[in-house]
Amino acid sequence: MRIAVVTVVHGRHGHLLLQHEGLAASRRPADHRVVVAMDDPQLERWRPAAPPVPDVVSVEGDDRGLPLARARNVGARRALSAGAEALIFLDVDCIPSPELIGSYERVLADPRTADDVVCGAVTYLPPPPEGGYRLEEVAHMGEPHRARPCPPPGQVDRGHDRYDLFWSLSFAVSAQTWHRLGGFEESYVGYGGEDTDFGRVAQSAGIALTWVGGADAFHQHHPVSRPPVEHVDDIVRNATIFRRRWGSWPMQGWLDALVARELVTRRPDGSYAVASALDSVLDVER
User: Fold this and answer.
1) What is the residue-level pLDDT of the chain in tens, covering all 286 positions?
2) Nearest-angstrom CA–CA distance, 58 and 257
3) Which GO MF term does the entry hold, naming one (predicted)?
4) What are the extents of the domains in the chain?
5) For residues 2 and 41, what is the distance between their CA atoms, to the nearest angstrom?
6) Which CATH class name applies to 3-219?
């Protein structure tokens, strides 16, 4: 099976370098490595000495936010045009374990799970120690996300009905399944919504969501806001798109928290709008 690993990037070059080191240490090497540079001209010239040599593709930015959905689709098209039979998507912050590619391959090579959307466990790492993360130590520095399945190595949890748990940090699909899904919905721009939409598309198509043990990834620490106040516009815009497509609201917890902060208002018809005083409120939040 010819496997491509696709990563979309804007900044976070240090995280990308450590991810590359992880891929270089993989027990089952990637056959093709696609890096999509989103409005990141510096990355277009990136040519690391260690394999896998990246195939860098450029995507223009968007004034509304990072075009994450479009960038993933561009990366997938490049990999498939080069002959990929399976796609592994890794967030730029994720360091793959040495067994990640091989674990995904075994599930996608099994006729019982070959057509599934396959996810592996992701562990959020604490801030790096002095000198930075070391590949041989990250597996012992945290625990996998508690809200998502985490089968033991070698085991598979198939047919999981919680499609809202899908996330694009680390997942794999066959080329055939990718074509059935049609990729990510590109009307989502910026933070939030496109992952939940992708899971809903899989559910509506009758494609199983499967979690595989052993395909571990380790998410490098970076500061976050809770709620993500810097993404208010994105959240409201993308949640509204999702509501129009599927009839329900995603990111309900974030929306409620933003309403409580008076960054977002809920209209009488149940829709959401960015508060008129957003700029002044965000100045206080910052």
Assistant:
1) 999 999 999 999 999 999 999 999 999 999 999 999 999 999 988 888 778 889 999 999 999 999 999 999 999 999 999 999 999 999 999 999 999 999 999 999 999 999 999 999 999 999 999 999 999 999 999 888 888 888 999 899 997 688 999 999 999 999 999 999 999 999 999 999 999 999 999 999 999 999 999 999 999 999 888 889 999 999 999 999 999 999 999 999 999 999 999 999 999 999 999 997 554 444 444 3
2) 35
3) glycosyltransferase activity
4) 3-219, 229-285
5) 29
6) alpha beta
